[in-house]
Automatic annotation (TrEMBL):
Pfam families: AzlC
Organism: Mesorhizobium sangaii
Domain of life: Bacteria
Coiled coil: none
The protein, known as: 4-azaleucine resistance transporter AzlC
Amino acid sequence: MSISQAVEAAGDGSTSEFRRGVASCAPVLFGTIPYALVLGAQATQKGLSVVELSAMTGLNFAGGSEFAAIQLWTSPPHIVLIAAITFLVNSRHLLMGAALAPFLRHLPRRKMFPALFFLCDESWALGLADARQRAAAGITPAFSPRYYMGAALAMYFTWVAFTTLGALLGPMLGHVETYGFDMAFPAVFLVLMRGMWKGVAAARPWLVSLVVAALTYLMVPGGWYVAAGAVSGLVSAWFLWREA
């Protein structure tokens, strides 16, 4: 898919909205670059080639599951375990897509599916936050597809480019964790969580996921804490929703 086709998937609207989405995503991009470099460097240390790493980040486009896959990567790789962990970590996209669906359902499928492909935590959070601000200001429609795609495409191309750069520079950088770059990943998510904070009651699934993941990490060897945190968060969110 060319850049022009991806931009067209944003729907009707002015190019200024697209530029506004790119501009609003810029602060997040600066936080993304360090851990994109970390992922690329870690991938080469695990034996992946630059082409393989670029294909993974370009086709999967989900940093959390990519980090999990790299941490679990062995030679030969445990494909079933990696696929299962990837599915569980990315399962949050089911909820994110459901939250975004009312804003995209009027689009034809040829535009909706590309928009959902470029969905990530950052573009989703920025898109919904912007929609709330526009709704509060009385602007209709509240959700701006062009704004969303501006943020999503900026995130996508930055992620693929700098993970690839990290793979190229990996042998020279060595263990990049020694520079503290790995802290950029949780830092960006803490900022996004702060923007979505609606009170303690709404954050209970986050707390359940955190506690279960931490306990599993301490008690069970391997990367199962990722799956445990993802599943427990989804299950708790479902039960709490049914109680509401």
